[in-house]
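User: Please predict the structure of the protein below. I'd like the answer in structure-token form so I can feed it into my own downstream comparison script.

Assistant: Understood. Taking the following sequence of 278 residues as input:
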Amino acid sequence: MNLISRYVARNESLKKALSSSSLVKRIAQRFVLTENLEESNLIGKWYDQGFGVILYPIEADAQNYLEALTFWSEKPVAGSVSLRAPFEDLNLVVEEAAKKGVRLEFDMRAAKEVDQTLQLYSEIKRKHSDSVICLQANLYRTATDIEDLHDLSPIVRLVKGAFKSERSYRCREEIDLNYIRLAKMLINRDVKTYLATHDEKIIKELISFSEERGIGRDQFGFQMLHGVRSTLQEELRKDGYEVWKYLAYGEDWVPYCINRLLERKENISFALEAILKE
């Protein structure tokens, strides 16, 4: 979470003012479900259309994750829960996910915690074989991490990444090039890969790459934020690709939304474009 969103998260009066703003609410609805999860009819509609759904509880503790697992266990559909490890009672959440047959997707909390998160994933993947690990293309180390994970038969969610460190790419062009390089590496090695990007140029290049090499459409899929490039998501689904919608929800949605918008300049463009099309 960047400095601005941290400030908003700590300032209750500012959060209240922002959350009551109609403009902020309209922008937020493109990224996050602000109301109670149980009140939403989106998930059933998406499932009927052939989309998968990943739930991301913004208030990230064991209880929130357990509630998300219970939500999925009571639905006649398959789903995932995205979590930020490590946290207290992680083992309890992993055990419940295995019992309830819900897939877990491990995000990264910070650049300094990559090693710890990868170690946790390695341990959990052996017990929970369909678990997914998020890798960030802006970090220099990611190609090496892919090599190190090879024997584990990982399932990877590849994002451009927002971590900034001494060992990360800063230039957008460099990050894009590394994203493409890493995606091709993963797909070539028969690693089940979810391309978590809204960048249509990159998506088209990777689809062409897979078609040229006769790589099946079951080898990779796409994960995109709820409300971003919805038409593109629908086109990919109709073309036979696996497409998952990433749905954040929770009471503390204002700083989350601000953080999402400020992570990358293109996020602001996506949100404004969506509003102007209404």
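That's the full token string. The chain has one domain: 35-249.
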